[in-house]
């Protein structure tokens, strides 16, 4: 997972007034709190910042029209790591609620844009990427959703590409070096690398795999993305761009 700076403090004591969603989120967090029997936690509340993050996560989890238990587990684990662990049950209930409801993402992003610093918003996008690949693949729907949210949060193309680059490093750290992904050694010349790359592109191309199931196509799409990213990194390393 990405190493996050101490940005979670952005949500502590974050009070939004005069904002319709602020009232809605306050009601949502409050309604969950009322169902808790632990008197020791009765004075503790989930901040609007946390709820905004949970809403974004819930949309991403649902984006492929299925709910992944792996992604739910990742979200809960992430929130418990970066926020008050004593509120774990409350946040888990809010996540379950949000998975069954729809909220205005424009308003969610407007709050984040208005009340957080640019670096915090960058790490929100990093969180969404980490969540998307927690189940081992980044789908086109997930990628487009994160791209759209980054735009709403005023993340420019340079920063978005840098975040995406960090994602690539994570993927490669899990699967091996750039050269291993292409299937060549580091000593291979560019002609050999290019030939191996083109063969893999043809192998994983959707037009060559129309007979496969949607799940298998998604896995091949993820592999194709890895191959393309690895090839670009090798070209940069060999100064061929």
Keywords:
single chain, 241 residues, mainly alpha, TerB-like, Helix Hairpins, 2 domains, 11 helices
CATH superfamily of the largest domain: TerB-like
Based on CA inertia axes, which overall geometry fits? elongated
Separation, N- and C-terminal Cα atoms: 29 Å
The assigned CATH architecture of the largest domain is: Orthogonal Bundle
Written account of the structure:
With about 240 residues, the chain is an all-alpha fold. It folds into two domains: about 170 residues, Orthogonal Bundle (TerB-like); about 60 residues, DnaJ domain (Helix Hairpins, Orthogonal Bundle). About 65% of the residues lie in helices and about 0% in strands. The protein is elongated, with a radius of gyration of 21 Å. About 10% of the residues have low confidence.
Can you give me a brief rundown of this structure?
By secondary structure, the chain is an all-alpha fold. The chain folds into 2 domains: about 10-175, TerB-like (Orthogonal Bundle); about 175-235, Helix Hairpins (Orthogonal Bundle). It has helices spanning about 20-35, 50-60, 70-80, 90-100, 105-115, 120-130, 140-150, 155-175, 180, 190-205, 215-235.
Could you give the topology of this structure?
Blueprint: H1 20-34, H2 48-62, H3 69-82, H4 88-99, H5 105-115, H6 118-132, H7 140-152, H8 157-175, H9 178-182, H10 190-204, H11 214-237
Helix pairs in contact: 1-4, 2-3, 2-4, 2-5, 2-6, 3-4, 6-7, 6-8, 10-11
């Amino acid at each position: 997972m990405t190493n996050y700076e101490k940005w979670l403090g952005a949500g502590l004591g974050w009070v939004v007034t005069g904002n319709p969603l602020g009232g809605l989120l306050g009601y949502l967090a409050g309604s969950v709190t009322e169902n808790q029997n632990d008197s020791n936690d009765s004075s503790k509340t989930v901040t609007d910042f946390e709820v905004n993050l949970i809403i974004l996560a819930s949309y991403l989890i649902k984006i492929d029209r299925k709910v992944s238990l792996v992604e739910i587990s990742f979200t809960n684990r992430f929130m418990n790591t970066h926020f008050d662990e004593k509120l774990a049950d409350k946040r888990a209930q809010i996540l379950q609620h949000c998975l069954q409801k729809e909220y205005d993402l424009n308003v969610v992003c407007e709050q984040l844009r208005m009340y957080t610093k640019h670096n915090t918003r960058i790490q929100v996008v990093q969180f969404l990427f980490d969540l998307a690949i927690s189940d081992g693949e980044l789908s086109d729907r997930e990628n487009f959703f994160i791209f759209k949210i980054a735009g709403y949060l005023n993340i420019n193309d340079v920063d978005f590409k840098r975040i995406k680059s960090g994602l690539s490093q994570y993927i490669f750290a899990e699967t091996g070096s750039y050269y291993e992904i292409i299937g060549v050694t580091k000593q291979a010349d560019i002609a050999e690398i290019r030939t191996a790359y083109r063969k893999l592109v043809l192998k994983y191309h959707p037009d060559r795999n129309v007979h496969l199931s949607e799940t298998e196509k998604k896995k091949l799409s993820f592999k194709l993305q890895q191959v393309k990213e690895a090839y670009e990194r090798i070209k940069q390393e060999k100064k061929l761009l």
